[in-house]
Every structure is written in structure tokens, then in C-alpha cells.
Request: fold
Amino acid sequence: MAFYFCNKGPPAALLPQFGQGVKIMKFLLGTKQEMSQVFGEDGRATAVTVLLAGPCIITQIKTTEKEGYNALQFGFGTKKKLNKPLSGHVKDLGNFRFFREIRVSSEEVKNFKVGDKVDATLFSEGDTIQVSGVSKGKGFQGVVKRHGFSGGPRSHGQKHSEREPGSIGGGGRAGGRVIKGMRMAGRMGGDRITVKNLKIMKVIPEENKVYVSGAIPGRRGTLIEIKS
Reply:
């Protein structure tokens, strides 16, 4: 799969290997800002999530010979100070808050260099993307909220069983011990979630903002990975 950072098409050096119908992978980091709505030409309102997307800088190029695989590492965001190992790693590229990487082929990795910049112009209105992020942590929750259980009956002599899980033993195991994977109360949220087939409704390159249809996991400020 080809990978490049240009809306106008692949670099001239790559033109001979591109044919009709070749899919292009695009990758960008951003943070979740807020939800809003966008009105289409037919007057319909579409719920959107506003992302602060980019700019990202390539901080490292990994190759099979040195690291065992081919990938591009990106730096995004800013922080006041980096520790000494990270400072030596990024040198004078910037004090990045986040680092993420994406796998590429051995041929594609040769077309990039450390310091290359990627921003919101990578995407355009109408692109179909998938986003990944970490969902909100909700702490310790019961089975009704965590798994959607209906709870116990509200009448006929039942007492304090509205949100109880019911029986957890039995079910085919000798001795009635709890089988693996039983849905029970526990920690909820804080999971990596990927949402596919979202549509870019609007791009504002001057503000590095991308408007994506639908809801996206996480709170305000959550790191979001955007892929074509």
C-alpha cells in the first residue's frame, strides 16, 4: 500500500509504480476538541467532532536492517520539557508530547526523511477515515451499566435486586465455579477504541481543524489517530 503526504498525488519519483485504483494510506495525529454540527446543502444537520489535527513531524525512520521493521515515527503536540533521552532523540525538532508510528514498506520508507512535516491539508472534505483513541474511564461499574443487564424483577417479593447480576455459578462447570469470561461488575472504560467509516465533513487548514462525522472515543484533549 502506498503512503505519502501530498494532496496533489505521489511524488514524481513514485509515479511509475502507481497505477489506476491504487489506495493511498494517510496518517495524522490530533486531539479531540468538542462536538458541533454541520449543515449540508439540503439543510440536514450532521453531528461532528472537531479535531485539532497536526502538524506532525517525522522524528525517526525505522528500517528492517536496524530495528527489524519499516516504520515512520511521528511527534505531535508540545510540552515544556523533555527528559534527556527524548531530547537527544528528537534533537532540535521540538518538544513533542506524543509519539506514534505507522508501518510502511521497505520501498516507501526511502522517500521520507527526518523533519518532514504533515498537517491537516493531508485530508480533504469527503474522505472516509477511521479513528482510534482511548475511551473515557468510568471507574468500577455494575453489570447494568457495564454490560447492559436488565437487572432483577421489581415486584413479587423481590427486594433490593433491581441492579443485581443474578447467578454466576454453574453453567456446565463441575463444582459450580465461575467460568472464564463471565460478565460481571468491574473497571469500565479506558479501552482503545477504533471507529471505522467516518466521513470528513470540513477541513480548516489555517486552524489545523478537521470536522469528522459522528462521535469519537475519549474526552477533550484525548490523542486521536486518523487513518484513511
